[in-house]
Amino acid sequence: MASQMSPKLLMPLASSVHAQRALLSLAQPLACIGTTHIRGLTTSRCGLSEQQKSESAEARTSGGSQQQEQQQQASSSSSDQAQNFYNTFKAGYEHVKSKTAGAAGGASGQEPAAKRLLQTLAQDLREVLLPAQDISSATRAYTGPVATATYDGPTALVLARQQATGWQKAWDTVQEKLGGIPLVGKFLNLKVTDTAAYKKGQELVEDLKDKYETSDHPVVHKVEDIKSRMFTGSEASRAMREIRVRDPAFDMNRFVQSVKLDAPSVVRAFLKHDLETLSQHCGPELLERFAGIFKHFDEQGVFEDPSILFIGDVEIVEVRLMDDDPFIIAQFHCQQLKCTRDKFGNVIDGSANQIQRVYYFWGLQQERSPVVTAEGKVLPPRWVIKDMMWQSMLALV
């Protein structure tokens, strides 16, 4: 209908600014005039009188004035609403700002605590919204050039000559001067471990030690349990102590972020049956197990859809020692498609639109020594994926 024609549709027809303005001035009155005026306007093209043309022109003029008044009222009301919204937002912002400033700058004794709280909140938000960019892979093997010199870590022992103190120098001088006297020389060369009393006491201590170790008395067992808990600690603490020895800069939060960084590539390689990529992250025993699983799928001519939609946060399940090496069990879940196809691409299990949640458990074992690159950079010991388990829990769609 001509009455519903938008002024914007007429804009591309004009090639100049003046023509566009003329069309816009003509189209706005047309949108407000009724169907009777439009019919009258169209019939005027077929031969209307000059009086009818003047009447239609007056109708257009009155309609245009009404449209302009309505537009001015609408613009004024919208500007008033925008101003009211801005004033409300500004008042709320100033209120929150004043309360925050009062909490941070109240008493002098509370100011450091409030400042530390704000800094902690800012740091947490920064770590969540803007994670660190220097997070590197924890499981990928380093394949670049390494340094020729060996590096035994920060606990390596080095022989060093100890400087003699003033008392030791004085004692050595006395021994040199009195060593020529037979009685004094015999006294100086006397060793307590060579006396009969010391040997007898040593035999008595050994007998008591044997009786204590072979005793079945419950008190002895209770004492040994208390000693083991007090001096050795739990298995997790001993594992963490060993981790710190091998990697003094180890941080559990960064380790969790590194595992989450490796999760997509490892899971996708597992779904694609890519042993070459898995060999950079996994140990030889797990690779042999994967080779058997992939061979079974290849013989049947089926493969799984490798699409990964989402990967959840990594959680640490357990920290322990295994064969004197630190062993960490990590858990995370993936949302992926439950779709298995044959070699022709036909779906034989699941659906192309069915989403499932799969839980993965990784067993990560820390290597003993770090790696030194050719540039002299010390890389922390690698965490090898020694075992991996997965289980589908539920379908989301």
From TrEMBL:
The record ties this protein, via InterPro entries, to: NTF2-like_dom_sf, Tim44-like, Tim44-like_dom
Q: Which UniProt keywords apply?
A: Membrane, Mitochondrion, Mitochondrion inner membrane, Transit peptide
Q: Name one GO biological process term.
A: protein import into mitochondrial matrix
Q: Classify the main location.
A: mitochondrion
Q: Which SUPFAM superfamilies match?
A: NTF2-like
- UniProt GO molecular function: protein-folding chaperone binding
What is the official name of this protein in its record? Tim44-like domain-containing protein
Organism of this sequence: Pleodorina starrii
Give the organism's phylogenetic lineage. Answer: Eukaryota, Viridiplantae, Chlorophyta, core chlorophytes, Chlorophyceae
- Gene for this protein? PLEST009153
